[in-house]
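Why do we bother with a discrete structure alphabet at all? Because it lets us treat a fold like text: something you can write down, compare, and reason about line by line. To make this less abstract, here is a complete entry for Cortexin domain containing 2. Read it the way you would read a sentence in a foreign language you are learning: slowly, and without expecting to understand everything at once.
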Amino acid sequence: MEESSLSRNIDVDKGFAIAFVILLFVLLIVMIFRCAKLVKNPYEASSTATEPSLS
């Protein structure tokens, strides 16, 4: 009897939804920092990502 009442209190769909929202927030924060870095110094950020150095 106690196991069935315990399983009713745990909602798997709600847990997946919360984990998904947290993952989206983490990705949003990472993208904000990447965009801020690009705005701060666009030449350094673009040169290392697209072109190899010729030296």
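What the structure line is telling us, in plain words: Residues 12-40 form the longest helix (29 residues). The chain is about 85% helix and 0% strand.
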